[in-house]
Amino acid sequence: MGRVISIDGPAAAGKSTTAKEVARRLGFYHLNSGLLYRAITWLAMKQGWSEADAEFAQWVEGLEIELVASPPDLVVRIGGRSPGRWLHSRRVSARVSAVSRHGAVRERVLSVLRDAGRRFDLVCDGRDIGSAVFPDAALKVFLVASAEERARRRLSDHGEPFTPERVERETRRLLERDRSDATRELSPLRRAPDAVEIDTTALGPEAVVERILALWREAPRRGDEARLG
Prior knowledge:
The protein is α/β, with parallel strands linked by helices. 52% of the residues lie in helices and 16% in strands.
């Protein structure tokens, strides 16, 4: 049984950047749960499947999904292929929310994540990791940031200029994503009661990482208990 640190929060709150560095510092593996949903979405689009198809659930259940160790990350392979940069394409981004709401998709991803938690010391980021996937995680963190700051970060990730119009448009899009994630029926975005909330709006990446490492050092017994199962 591995030790698990869960890092949750809304889109562009800094989860994956933070989780990867925390994993590197601790010698853990990093897994971005969203990449599993994106991988399924990517392959569904490539093979012409829709989440509305009658046999979609059966197709999802039969998928070959692997997590390949590439320290500090666990890299997703699906159907014997590594989607790589295509996971972050705009076409996948436009579809992933609808695909991830499907019950069969969520169950399959849940199974893969929990298997990883049994096999590895893991820093896992997503939207329901501490609340639904690993409710007994050794440490739970919930990152937040203002919608406008998250919009700037997302535009920066995409290499787009910071015009007022672009920031406003991306802010609206993120707020709509927040609403959708928080109100979905299956595993909604929600801070676990025992998660530590960190507002990253005015914090640099290094400060956030140091805060989480300090929390981990303050809870060594929880980490040991998680390892013992």
